Structure formats: C-alpha cells, structure tokens
# Entry
Amino acid sequence: MVKSAMTCKALREIQATSRGKEVTIKARVARLWDSVLISNGELVSLDMILIDQEGTMMHGVISKAYAAKFKPLILEGNVYSITNMRVMPAPPKFRPVENDKIINFSATTNIEEIQDKEDIPKHGFNFSSIEVLSTRVGVDIYLLDVIGIAAYIGPIEESNVIIITSTTVKKNGRYSLSSNSATQVYINLPIPETMDVQNSICSQENNTKEVHIEEGHLKGTMEEQMSYNRKTLQELNDIIFNSSNQGRIFTVEAVIDEVNTRYSWYYISCSKDNCKKQLEKKTDHYYCSKCDRKAEAKPRYKVKLEISDPTASASCVLFDKEAQQLINESAENMVVSSSNESNELPRPIQAICGKMIIFQFRLTDYNFESCRPDYTISKIFLLDDNISSMKIENDDKRNLKKTSKRVVIKKKPKEDIEDADIREDDDDEEEAFKMIRRSKRIERNQRHGVHLDEDEDEESEVQLNSQRSRKKRTHL
# Structure
C-alpha cells in the first residue's frame, strides 16, 4: 500500500528514471483499454491514459505478464495513488498523448484507489483541427483525437457530437481516420468542447441562411411557386452529395411518414417575436443570449419529421410558424393542454402523419459540407386530399402539372430564420413545461468531414507493440 506520508509528484515533474527508482503520483485513469494484436486478438498489454490535477496526460502501460494482477484493481474514471513504477522514454511512433515519457508498471508497483475530490479532470484530449489532420497523412509520431458532428455512422443518431480518440490519418481520394486498440468513441460527452462544436454548427447554419438569398421562389403565381426548382427527394439528396451548384431553394412533394420522437417537439424560446432564441436556464430565471437579458419563456414548435416520396426518404425540421398552421394550434397552448405525466406525442401532432405536402427547402453550406439530407423547411403548401402530382403521369417529373388544386401558402417570415439556432435541452424544457402550465392559468403568454475506417490499423498496432517489446528487452 502507498504510504500516506509520501509526497506525490505532478506528471510534468517526473523524469525518465533507471529501474527501481521510486516515484509516486496521484492521477485519474481517464481511459483504459486492452492492447491486442489485430491478427489473432492476443493481449499485448493493458494500457491507460493518466491525467493529473494540472491536466497533464501520460500513457501508462502494464505488460501482459502483470495484466492479470493489476486489471482487477483499476477502473476507468477512478483516482489512484501509484508508486514504484518505471518512467521511461516514449516510443518514437503511435503515442496516444503528446508526452515524451510513459509509465511502465512492474511487479513491485503499488496502486491504491483514493478519494475522488473532483480536483482532477475526468477527461483529457488533444483535438486536431481539419487543417492539422490534412498534414498528418503518413506522420505517425502521435495518434490523433478528433471531435465533430456525426453525419452517417450506422445507428448513431445524426447531429450528435462525436469524439474519436487515438486515430491515424489516411488519404485515398478523401481523408479518413483509422482506428486501433487505443481508439475510443464518445457521444455528446459533457465537456466544453462539445458545446463549442454545437454552437459553431448552429452559428454556421444561421449565418448561411442570412447570406444566401434567392428571390425567384417568391415570384410568380401560386402554382409557379409550388413547382419552383421541383425535385424528387433522390434528386435533392444527389445535389448535396455531389455538391452540385443548382441553387439553394427547391420544392419537393412528399408525405410525412412520422414524427421523430427522439427529439422534443418544442423548445423554450425568448418570447420576443423578433428574437425566438432558445433560452439558457439559470438558477432562478431564463436568460436570452441574443437579447442579453432575463427573458420570459415561450414554447415554440421544432418538430423533426421523417418524409418520403417514391424515390427516397429524408429528414426535415418544421419550425413554429409552419408547424402552427399545419397543426392548427400554438405550441404554447399544446404544452398547457398536454399531460405533464405522459411522454406520448400530442395527438394533434400525430395527426399530421400521412399528409401529402409540398415542401420548400433552403439548402445551407452545412448541408453540402456534411452531406446530410436533413433539411430546414422555409415554406409549405398543403394539398387537397387525393390530389398529388405523385398520382399524375408526367414525362417531366421535375415540374408540377398545373391543376385546379386548392392550396394554402404557408410563408416563412425573415425572423423565423433565427429558429435554426436551436439546440435540444430536454431538462430545461421539462422544467419550463411545468412553469408555463402554472403561469398559463393566470396569463397567456434547435467541411470538412472525415470518415472513420471500420477496419483497425494493424500496421500501426504491430509497430507499436514491437516498439514496446524492444523497449522491454532494453530495460528489464
């Protein structure tokens, strides 16, 4: 056991030492993984990232010979006092942290879990920007940590912030990331960098909407506006996948298949009609960062829809103005009338499923950079039942045949652009839900991209393990 009187050193203070030199540190195990050979899965070592009170990180290695002894004693996230280990120069390649030293456990190393006083960071990363990643092809001194928005990664839900650790960069037409035993993936990790990415994406979307403006879709007759730049969903998806320069405003006729209930159907906004910014929950009030003041909370619609036509499917967001006119009830009244004890989607919102709609979409730079068929609705046209161009044979499927359809135009005012800056915050919404129901009784009042290879980088792993074996023979 570690002697209580022994003084712990910061990781930056310890130096590479000869065998048997006693060193004691206090650190959190921020990451823990089995290092294995890709070819046969054989364990090579038990590895970890240690982080101390100053935020300094160091790679820790327990060789295969001692892994069985120490593995039951170590849990990821816990804080430990470690003594009598060897501090050695880090290998020249595939270092998981930017440190030129590593810690090797030996048979005489002592490790003791100590009280977590919350004075040591729980996580540590060295994030690389896109610019840095592009210069690291074939450069393998350090493994790289990256952070960004998930576009299409199997079952991972879109719009999540993903952190991928300990990767190498390859380029085969496009940049890609290769994983290895040290790679770990975090989704929406509650750290400041995650919030920075979310804010950056929201800002990009909002700025894009203000800069890229077309006027052709606002001119002409009602039917001409309905058929402006008419595309099928497959054609629209192809435009963003191929970064085709075909304008920014398009119309698509599609059916609402379902409401995505993974997202809340409303958000808590500033009550000012020319703001509509999502509010920040403070201790005893809501704060609007746009108005820079204490603000009155008001629910507004933000309904995530899954839509389809005969060619493809896509997602889109229906904001307050269009949602209210489609649902025929305000979000504020819906919150008040909905049962606070039930998580079921309100029936008036469920009732929009199955409706055939002509959607007008505005594409943003974010659509093209992320290649995401996730569109923001700027206007909707409601069709009479049983009247749809999907049922009309037309050689030119890009143009809607002019008929005597009765339509209702749902216009999106300029101030609604601010709604694109919304992020999800279910806890705040739930609390505001209760507050608004009470108050209502008195008064009415949400690149560059890189691809993560599914196959692990065996060459990197073999070289890393080979380096460790040579280092072990040198110092043992």
The chain is about 20% helix and 30% strand. The two ends are 23 Å apart (CA to CA).
